[in-house]
Each structure stands twice: as C-alpha cells, then as structure tokens.
Specification:
Blueprint lengths: L7 E12 L3 E2 L5 E2 L7 E4 L1 H15 L16 H12 L6 H7 L3 H12 L1 H6 E7 L3 E8 L2 E3 L2 E6 L3 E7 L5 H4 L5 E19 L1 H8 L3 H12 L12 E12 L8 H5 L2 E5 L12 E5 L8 E5 L2
Antiparallel strand pairs: 1-10, 1-11, 2-3, 4-8, 5-6, 7-10, 8-10, 9-10, 11-14, 12-13
Helix pairs in contact: 1-8, 2-4
C-alpha cells in the first residue's frame, strides 16, 4: 500500500472516574503524578498498549496486522521469522550481513510489512541468541507524548476487605484480610501526538488504511480494555490537524495552542466532563492546515 502523504498532529482528551489510569510501580502503584505541580501523568507506553490491544482484537488473524510487543511472546521469536523469510539462520545473521549490504533493509521491510505496531510506532529489534540477532531499529511515524491532567489531581487511598484468606494458618484467627486501592475521583487528561508522512514514506510504509485504523483504535482504546482498577475511562475528544504537505505547514505547538480546555464558570473542582468546555480556534489556523474533531 502507498504510504500516507500528509503530516498530522493531534490532541486526545480522555477522562477517568474512580480509577487509576496509570499506576507508578516506584510509588506503590499509586497514580502517576508530577510532585511539583500535582498534575496527573500517563505515559505514552500506557496508551500504546491499549492501541495495540485494540488492533490485535479487531484484526486477529489478518495478515499484516500482527503485534510485535505483546504478552507472552519473546521478541526474538518474531525476529527469527524475518531471518527464516530471507533464508538466513538466526545465529549466522552477523556473517550474512557482511555478504549482503541490503540484508538490514530486507529484515526491516519484512517486520514492517507484518507487524502493525512496528509500522506505526517503530521498534528496537535487537536481541541476542548465539550472536547478534538484529533486525534493525525503526523510528515509527506515529509518536505520542506523555498525557497530563488538565487540573491537579488528588489521588485517594481506599481500604478494601476480602473474605479469602491467604495462609492456612491465618484462617483460624481471622475471617477477612485488608487491602488498598488507589483511585483518582475524576480527572481529564490531554495527550498530544504526531504523525510524520516523511518517515512513513522512507521507512515503514504506514498507509491511509493504517491511519484509519489508528484513529479507530484511539477512539475505542478503552472500550475493550476495561479493568476495575482503572475505573471508568473514555475518550472524549480526538482533534486532528491535517497538513496539506508531507513536511507540514506549521509548527505542531502552534496548532496545539488552538485547543483550549477550560473549566465552566463557577466550577471549582471538576467531577465530570460536563464541567469543562473544549474550544478549537480553527479560524486562526495557518494556511494549508485543516482541523477535524473526530469525536
């Protein structure tokens, strides 16, 4: 398929209610937070996981839409498939590259053609068997930044009880055990992303069909990935800026500044999406850029 020809920049607004959108393992799995400002954070990796899970669910078994980074599948197992395809044994790949200058490109093309997440986000495909098994490094055309909450958050620690006792010796002395969960009562998060048509053309061949699937996955990324720990999460806005050229017609930060998220008058502590107003000043867009609100 032909790679995309236009650059895109986009903003995702999503919220959480009574849940933990992204636990921090260095802080007892409490919601990630900027300790200086109090704003909540969600990593790019967290959202990419949900996009991968959605694609794997809706495109299961369809060639070209496999997922490289997934649970229970060692990366070098997928790397070896690329070696088998080009007819080189995995433990002899280092010597084979000395004889074929195009071997790296052949390996990369196989991985991009077969794995949607490599075609989209890129990947570091370097593992080790007996010698270096290296399918190269791919910088993907789609990049996400960290999400940040619109307002500071106040995580709450909720004590819970369970009737199941862990140890046989404890069963005689107690009928319940205590536990804890961290939640954010309510928060609206903003994530900004970028799509490079230049990298799509030069490296991964990320296509218009891939782009349509990406938008679909972003809009629905929480719908098939529910968890009691994450509470109620929903994508509220997907605002897409499309450039009419490959390299773009305006700096991304200038476009992001056109998206304003403000609390409604009289709201001190938002507890629902309805407490906010989202405005896009599309009348101030530079020439050659169009804006679409997809949600």
């Amino acid at each position: 398929m032909e790679p995309i020809k236009n650059r895109y920049d986009f903003v995702i607004l999503y919220d959480v209610e009574n849940g933990n959108p992204n636990g921090d393992p260095d802080a007892g799995n409490m919601p990630r937070i900027d300790p200086e400002s109090g704003f909540g954070l969600v990593t790019d990796v967290c959202l990419k996981r949900k996009i991968r899970n959605y694609v794997e669910t809706v495109k299961e078994g369809i060639p070209g839409y496999r997922i490289y980074v997934k649970d229970g599948v060692p990366l070098n197992r997928s790397d070896k498939e690329a070696c088998e395809y080009i007819g080189v044994e995995a433990d002899k790949i280092k010597d084979a590259k000395k004889k074929d200058d195009n071997l790296d490109e052949k390996l990369r093309d196989f991985m991009c053609r077969n794995f949607y997440d490599i075609r989209t986000f890129g990947a570091v495909m370097t593992t080790f068997v007996k010698s270096a098994l290296n399918c190269g490094q791919v910088r993907g055309p789609v990049q996400l930044g960290f999400s940040r909450s619109i307002d500071p958050i106040l995580p709450q620690e909720v004590t819970i009880t369970r009737v199941a006792i862990t140890k046989e010796s404890d069963a005689e002395n107690k009928g319940t055990e205590m536990g804890r969960k961290y939640i954010v009562p309510y928060a609206l998060y903003r994530c900004e992303g970028y799509i490079s048509a230049n990298l799509a053309r030069k490296t991964t061949s990320f296509s218009e069909d891939d782009l349509a699937l990406l938008w679909e996955a972003i809009i629905n990324m929480f719908e098939n990935d529910r968890s009691a720990a994450r509470g109620k999460m929903a994508v509220r806005e997907l605002i897409v800026f499309k450039h009419d050229s490959e390299l773009g017609n305006a700096p991304a930060h200038k476009l992001f500044e056109q998206v304003k998220v403000e609390k409604k008058a009289g709201v001190a502590s938002p507890r629902a999406y309805a407490d906010y107003v989202v405005k896009v000043e599309d009348d101030k867009l530079p020439q050659g850029v169009t804006c679409t609100r997809m949600v």
